[in-house]
What does this fold into?
Amino acid sequence: MSKKSRAYKPKACYLCGKNGRADRLEMHHVFGGPYRKKSEKYGAVVALCGEECHRNGKNSVHRNRAVNMALKEEFQRRIMTEHGWTVEKFIEEFGKNYT
It folds into this structure.
């Protein structure tokens, strides 16, 4: 089996639930910039409708600060719970507290 066939293939947008047929799904790193690799390592990458939910829609993660911050808070809590981290440990790994 090739690596490509084992890759994660999302079936729906994390935010709106659409299947990506009309608006192709794109992967979004919840913690971007220097924390992209850590987002991948800790599972903080989600599929989003490219046009509407990821880049250009009114409530897209890159245009709506509230949506962006809600995702960051959700995934901070998830990572902290899964790994038994304190807020201080999360800050050590991701540079900031989002809760």
In short: Helices lie at 3-6, 36-41, 50-55, 65-83, 87-94. The CA atoms of residues 13 and 48 lie 4 Å apart. Residues 10-94 form one domain. The radius of gyration is 14 Å.
